Amino acid sequence: MNGTMDETLPLLERAAGRTADLVDSIGEDELALPTPCAELDVRGLIAHLEWGASLFESLATGGQMIPQGEYTGDFRERAERMLAAWRRPEAWEGTSPGMGLPMATLAGMSLCDLVVHGWDLSVAIGRPYEVGGEEAERLLAFAGQMAPMGRERGAFGEPVEVPAGAPALERALGELGRDPSWKP
């Protein structure tokens, strides 16, 4: 999923906007609902997304890993700051001092985080989350490249078997340890 700025940035922008719209639609009464992330309810998953946006902003500007915090309700603002960091051409150059991975790989990780956790939220609250074909194909390629290392580091679960003819998003979710047919 190591794409160039021109290939990946538009996908990041669409995923961040779609996920922020979804987060903004969530009511107080939905924050305790379960999600496909067994250890996280909706509030916890939004807190994870908030942290992810701040983390990838830090990494895109040459910073380090940052600790995850509590839910603050400012995902859209954090996502905008993250996108501003990725809009800088120098953010795509070299290797991250904070993670030791190519910057383009980190952009792919950011896209994966937004799309997968956006899907997690959508099925938890029962609202649509339309992922474009190009995003789904990029996510599937990313899953094939990064899932084994992600599993070793505890970021992804064991693969879930998904039919070979399933849509790219479902196959990517399965590779990343999600059951595409999960229901609350």
TrEMBL record:
SUPFAM superfamilies listed in its UniProt record: DinB/YfiT-like putative metalloenzymes
Source taxon at top rank: Bacteria
Residue ranges constituting the Mycothiol-dependent maleylpyruvate isomerase metal-binding domain according to the UniProt record: 13-63
InterPro entries: CHP03086, DinB/YfiT-like, Maleyloyr_isom, MDMPI_metal-binding
Record-linked Gene3D superfamilies: dinb family like domain
Coiled coil: none
GO MF annotations in UniProt: metal ion binding
Protein name in UniProt: TIGR03086 family protein
Organism (species): Nonomuraea montanisoli
